[in-house]
Write a structure and sequence with these properties.
It is a single chain. A 3-stranded mixed β-sheet has the order 1-3-2. The protein starts with 12 loop residues before the first helix and ends in a 16-residue tail after the last helix. With 287 residues, it is mainly α. Helix 4 packs across helix 5 and helix 4 packs across helix 7. The chain has one domain. A hairpin with a 4-residue loop joins strand 2 and strand 3. The longest helix is centred in the middle third of the chain and has 28 residues. The protein binds zinc ion. Zinc ion binds next to helix 3 and helix 4.
């Protein structure tokens, strides 16, 4: 049952509404900055079209996240503005990936789920840096500088180095750089395994009906689509997108865990009867 949170005539209304409107002012301000970049503007427009909402989340443990089931971006407010702009561009790219069917889902095998997580993260960060580079070109260098000083500074540096031969090769260099850091490659593993374990039943039910979705070089390439029609993964020179750089990096113990969950799902699938399959819960994955 829903109780009204506060009585509109109550004096405490001001205490409640002022911080809220300040949140909205901050969000509007960040969005207006993103719109100064052609790619940022396109991502904002795409998110608006698909009903993506942005909110301040003081409780969240992540600086920023995109939650697929609620189509919501959460941002921690206590980060410097210069960093938030890149973080917001990164999450808007996840929203774009979701709307275009590229995000992880209940139809990925456990291994593909992990590989798709890596690929979508690499793409989201590459595009975030593109937005910051466009803002620098428009006279606002602080957002790219924040990226160059942040946790993924190597990716921003790769973008600038690769970008000397053009935007497309800069994006590909940034995408590839994501995978070159071993700690980063395995950083999503714990979270991925937890999610897969929680959703093993739902994956079994969904894939009993629809089968597993492929995740091969052709599928990965779809991730590289940019507003305006270019595709940096298709147009850039480089290794095929399903080679060792993108796939390796699991310890034998980690591989056994992934295989274990895959076996568990296979066991559940073999016990599924198609007529008993109900609607599956939406995944509440945060990227
Ligand atoms: Zn992400």
């Amino acid at each position: 049952m829903n109780q009204p949170v506060h009585n509109p005539g109550h004096p405490s209304l001001h205490a409640l509404t002022i911080p809220l409107s300040r949140n909205q002012q901050s969000i509007d301000h960040w969005i207006s900055i993103l719109r100064l970049s052609p790619t940022g503007k396109a991502l904002v427009g795409y998110a608006e079209k698909h009903g993506v909402r942005i909110r301040i989340d003081r409780q969240g443990w992540q600086y920023a996240y995109y939650e697929a089931d609620s189509r919501r971006i959460g941002l921690k407010p206590n980060r410097p503005d210069a960093e938030i702009i890149g973080n917001l561009a990164h999450e808007l790219r996840h929203a774009w990936q979701h709307a275009s069917g590229q995000l992880t889902s209940l139809t990925d095998t456990p291994m593909d789920f992990l590989l798709r997580t890596r690929a979508t993260e690499a793409d989201a960060e590459a595009v975030a840096i593109l937005v910051c580079a466009e803002l620098a070109e428009a006279g606002h260098p602080q957002y790219l500088e924040a990226r160059l000083k942040g946790e993924m500074s190597d990716i921003a540096q790769a973008f600038l180095k690769g970008g000397k031969s053009g935007r497309i090769s800069g994006l590909r260099a940034a995408y590839d750089q994501w995978f070159r850091n071993g700690r980063r490659r395995s950083s999503y593993l714990g979270y991925t395994l937890e999610w897969l374990e929680d959703n093993a039943d739902a994956i079994a039910k969904t894939t009993s009906r629809h089968g597993f979705r492929p995740f091969n070089a052709g599928e990965i390439m779809k991730l590289g689509a940019l507003p305006g029609g270019h595709n940096y993964l298709a147009e850039s020179a480089g290794a095929p997108l399903d080679t060792a750089l993108y796939k390796d990096g699991l310890t034998p113990a980690q591989q056994r865990k992934i295989d274990g969950i895959a076996q568990e799902i296979e066991g559940k699938r073999s016990r599924q009867h198609p007529r008993h399959i109900g609607p599956h819960p939406a995944p509440s994955l945060r990227m």
